[in-house]
Amino acid sequence: MSELSSPHGSWPSPISAGDVARGVRLPAYPSVRGDEVWWEEYRPDEDGRTTLMRRDADGTVHDLLPPSWSAGTRVHEYGGRSYLPVPRRDDKAIPRMGVVFSAREDQRLYLLERGAKEPVPLTPEPATRATVRYADPALSTDGRHVLCVREEHTDGEVRRSIVSVPLSGRGAQTPSAVRELVSGARFYASPSPSPDGRHLAYVRWNHPRMPWDGTELRVGEVTDSGLIGEYTLKGGVDESVLSPVWADDETLYLASDWPGFWNLYQAGLKGQAIALYPAEEEFHAPPGRLGSRSFCVLDSGRLVTLHGDVSMRPSVYDPDTLDLTGISTELTSWSQVDTDGTSVVAVAASADTSPCVVRLDPERRSVEVLRRSMTEGPDPAYLPTPIQETLRGRYGATVHANVYPPTHPDVTTEGPAPYVVWAHGGPVSHAGRELDLVKAYFTSRGIGVVDVNYGGSTGYGRSYRRRVNKEWGVVDVADCEAAARALVERGVADPERLAIRGPSAGGFTALSAVTGDTFACGVSYFGVTDLLGLTRTTHDFESRFLDSLVGTLPGFVETYRERSPINRVDEIDVPVLLLQGLDDPVVTPDQAFRMATGLGSRGVRHALLEFEGEAHGFRGEEARVRSLEAELAFYGEVFGFETDVPSLELSTVPPEPRVERAEATTDEAVGEDEEDDLPVAERLPEVTPAAGVDAETGEPARPRE
Question: Region Disordered: what ranges (predicted)?
Answer without folding.
Answer: 650-705
